[in-house]
Design goal:
Oligomer: single chain
Organism: Canis lupus familiaris (Dog)
Distance between the termini: 92 Å
Family: Belongs to the SMEK family.
Low-confidence stretches: 113-127, 417-422, 666-670, 685-716, 727-833
Strand content: 5-15%
GO cellular component, one term: protein phosphatase 4 complex
Strand order of the largest sheet: 4-3-2-1-7-6-5
Protein name: SMEK homolog 1
InterPro entries: ARM-type_fold, EVH1_PP4R3, P4R3-like_central_dom, PH-like_dom_sf, PP4R3-like
Structural class: alpha+beta
Number of strands: 9
Radius of gyration: 42 Å
Length: 833
């Protein structure tokens, strides 16, 4: 393996101006044929894959920062950085880059690509460096003008930066700052503001390291207080020294770490508060400042993470009952800030960070903190908990299930001793805080509801072979937690109207309903058993009477989600408890107003009609038709009534359904002898018998009497006579259970589209009741008495006679089967001759 000198991390700058870690590997330089030049190559230390392959372009500006960083831009808005483990490795690669570009390795930036005039180039080539005016009070204006004039030209910026570094100029300027302050020289202080701001825009790490050193940083902040645009100077130093206090909640023994924390806080303050908001042109000039803060934070998190004694003390004091409230609050705020810092880490580093916190016992500690009365402490603990849930919900689920198991074991022992176990589960604490949120806008409750939703979402549960996490956690949640979540709902819906209907209660119940609706959609038998056993839907529909429209709509949405599942268990529960009554009542109370409530209720009934949910259709029409029959601005309810009548007809005339079934069976299951006869007729008949696509019926067939035509049905009906009563019972049971039975409809229309067996006359088969000929005589088995409400129709077209007409929906059902069984028209004619 390559030595540690060449070990690097590869970073890219994302759209948010944050550095993304692309991986750790070992860097080398060499000629790459594909790129036609010397290139930087980084191979991952884990698997040897290529992390980076970048050609060293002669015109690209490379910067060396902090002795271990090399930063450059590959293309517009695509910045790269190599962070070396050792300075020696950084120097080696820097020399290679400078060698390709023909630069002196002592420089910290190779060049910038900006077009300049020939005169400027000549000036820059002819002068080895930039000569700064002597650092005197009388020449501050001249120095300010020099800095301002150098900023537009990259090469002049480079020369200015080198001059400032080499001559220790910044410290001399800061000495002048003290003189100006003592003399109250406002003009000089304004010039120093412009000079220091210009030095920031040079974007040089070497200069930042001088300016942000312990001895200089407060003076730099002091210079930036005297903005010429302001009538009075800011008081940043006073804030940092007197108001902002560094609290060492756990003593930090490492002086380097302590200094790094101070430095990062102050630099962050400069970036956020002191420096004016950069213009579009200046924004990229401060990229090095962003990088400086980013890498500082990474270092701080790493150093704290490696200090095992520090973290051990932190969690010990957090969970120690003897720790006083003020101290605990400070510890929690530190931990929250620590977790916030971790968000700058890259995925693999963040994994290690949260794994360390988990091993230290962060979840038991949070449980202790969330049980406290201090709202600020609880709020900080909630933020920490959200970091954990977003990072790894499975880790949180595993903890709460283990905790529940331990509590169950303890409870068994205490029950034997007749003692009550008062331990509260972490997840129940979260639910209670959601329910008890005192914020009028329920900001905290919304955040907690989102966390609960993440925890109960099966989509992010580990997909193992036996799916144990989903089964076990949902079983745990419905056993130990669901009653806590639904408690405010059940408490508020004991009567016909909500007992409390204020805005905050309505908001809370809307949140609870949102989570329950999510459960209906994503959980199966757990939520179904809970809703039916606890009569949850009836309680939810009480909220339809709320004066808050958003809450009534939440209740309606909950029911709509249940109906959308088309589950007969739910449907029977709805019908048994008459749970359409609150919806119909709300619809009637809404009157003729065309609003969201009106549309949502109509959409629900339209869904029942379109999906033909028979059990609900019958229930609605039988119980609520009188209330809904006058609604004629939509056809939904009349359509439901029509569905219901069709369904009732099928129930009242099961023989018709049976007959259709028989005819279909006869059509598709003819015995072998019939087939042989048909084949013989096929070969004995010429195709010339066909004219204009119509079947030509032979004279002998026309002279057949009605009994001969219907003879196959008579024989078939005799064979089926014994089974007829059984079929009636089966069909009746099928209709009562809500399953779709075959639709069979008789029509008296002379313009019917279809004959009995097909969509076109050509598909009639011999021996079937739809064959050419006359319908059965009144005494034949296939006839239907005229006294019945549905009478057979005789349709005549081109010499073809059909018994009945199928409704349109059955045509679609039979289309595929007809295609398989239909023979060419000429062959049909030959069969029928």
């Amino acid at each position: 393996m390559t030595d540690t000198r060449r070990r690097v991390k590869v970073y890219t700058l994302n759209e948010d101006r944050q550095w993304d870690d692309r991986g750790t590997g070992h860097v080398s330089s060499g000629y790459v044929e594909r790129l036609k030049g010397m290139s930087l190559l980084v191979r991952a230390e884990s698997d040897g894959s290529l992390l980076l392959e970048s050609k060293i372009n002669p015109n690209t500006a490379y910067q060396k920062q902090q002795d271990t960083l090399i930063v450059w831009s590959e293309a517009e808005n695509y910045d790269l950085a190599l962070s070396f483990q050792e300075k020696a490795g950084c120097d080696e690669i820097w020399e290679k880059i400078c060698q390709v570009q023909g630069k002196d390795p002592s420089v910290d930036i190779t060049q910038d690509l900006v077009d300049e005039s020939e005169e400027e180039r000549f000036d820059d080539m002819s002068s080895p460096g930039l000569e700064l005016p002597s650092c005197e009070l009388s020449r501050l204006e001249e120095i300010a003008e020099l800095v301002a004039s150098s900023l537009p030209s990259p090469l002049r910026r480079e020369k200015l930066a080198l001059a400032l570094e080499n001559e220790g100029y910044i410290k001399k300027l800061l000495e002048l700052f003290h003189v100006c302050e003592d003399l109250e020289n406002i003009e000089g202080l304004h010039h120093l503001y412009e000079i220091i701001k210009g030095i920031f825009l040079l974007n040089r790490t070497a200069l930042f390291e001088v300016m942000f050193s312990e001895e200089c940083i407060m003076d730099v902040i002091g210079c930036l207080e005297y903005d010429p645009a302001l009538s009075q100077p800011r008081k940043h130093r006073e804030f940092l020294t007197k108001t902002a206090k560094f609290k060492e909640v756990i003593p930090i023994s490492d002086p380097e770490l302590k200094q790094k924390i101070h430095q990062t806080y102050r630099v962050q303050y400069i970036q956020d508060m002191v420096l004016p908001t950069p213009s579009v042109f200046e924004e990229n000039m401060l990229s090095t400042l962003h990088s400086f803060i980013f890498f500082n934070k990474v270092e701080i998190v790493g150093m704290l993470q490696e200090d095992e004694k520090f973290l051990t003390d932190l969690f010990a004091q957090l969970t120690d009952e003897a720790t006083d409230e003020e101290k605990r609050q400070e510890l929690v705020n530190f931990l929250k800030e620590f977790c916030a810092f971790s968000q700058t880490l890259q995925p693999q580093n963040r994994d290690a960070f949260f794994k360390t916190l988990s091993n230290m016992g962060i979840l038991p500690a949070l449980e202790v903190i969330l049980g406290m009365d201090d709202t600020q402490v609880r709020s900080a603990a909630t933020d920490i908990f959200s970091y954990l849930v977003e990072y790894n919900p499975s880790m949180v689920r595993e903890f709460v299930m283990q905790e529940a198991q331990q509590n169950d074991d303890v409870s068994k022992k205490l029950t034997e001793q007749k003692i009550t176990n008062k331990d509260i589960l972490l997840i129940n604490l979260i639910i209670e805080h959601m329910i008890c949120d005192t914020d009028p806008e329920l900001g905290g409750a919304v955040q907690l509801m989102g966390l609960l939703r993440t925890l109960v979402d099966p989509e992010n549960m580990l997909a193992t072979a036996n799916k144990t996490e989903k089964t076990e956690f949902l079983g745990f949640f419905y056993k130990h937690c669901m009653h806590v979540l639904t408690a405010p709902l059940l408490a508020n819906t004991t009567e016909d109207k909500p007992s409390k209907d204020d805005f905050q209660t309505a908001q809370l119940l809307a949140l609870v309903l949102e989570l329950l609706t999510f459960c209906v959609e994503h959980h199966t038998y757990h939520i179904k058993n809970y809703i039916i056993n606890k009569d949850i839907l009836r309680r939810v529909l009480v909220l339809m009477a709320s004066k808050h429209a958003f809450l009534a709509l939440c209740a309606l949405r909950f029911k709509r989600k249940i109906i959308g599942l088309k589950d007969e268990f739910y449907n029977r529960y709805i019908m048994k408890s008459f749970l359409f009554e609150p919806v119909v009542k709300a619809f009637l109370n809404n009157g003729s107003r065309y609003n969201l409530m009106n549309s949502a209720i109509i959409e629900m009934f339209e869904f029942i009609r379109v999906e033909d949910i028979k059990s609900l259709t019958a229930h609605v029409i039988e119980n609520y038709w009188k209330a809904l029959e006058d609604v004629d601005y939509v056809q939904t309810f009349k359509g439901l009534k029509l569905r219901f009548e069709q369904q009732r007809e099928r129930q009242d005339n099961p023989k018709l359904d049976s007959m259709r079934s028989i005819l279909r069976n006869h059509r598709y299951r003819r015995d072998a002898r019939t087939l042989e006869d048909e084949e013989e007729m096929w070969f004995n008949t010429d195709e010339d018998d066909m004219e204009d696509g119509e079947a030509v019926v032979s004279p002998s067939d026309k002279t057949k009497n009605d009994d001969d035509i219907m003879d196959p049905i008579s024989k078939f009906m005799e064979r089926k006579k014994l089974k007829e009563s059984e079929e009636k019972e089966v069909l009746l049971k099928t209709n009562l259970s809500g399953r779709q039975s075959p639709s069979f409809k008789l029509s008296l229309s002379s313009g019917t589209k279809t004959s009995l067996t097909s969509q076109s006359p050509s598909t009639n088969l011999p021996g079937s009741p739809g064959s050419p000929g006359s319908p059965g005589s009144p005494g034949s088995p296939g006839s239907v008495p005229k006294s019945t409400s549905q009478t057979a129709a005789i349709t005549t077209k081109g010499g073809l006679v059909g018994l009945v007409d199928y409704p349109d929906d059955d045509e679609d059902d039979d289309e595929d089967e007809d295609k398989e069984d239909t023979l060419p028209l000429s062959k049909k004619a030959k069969f029928e001759s």
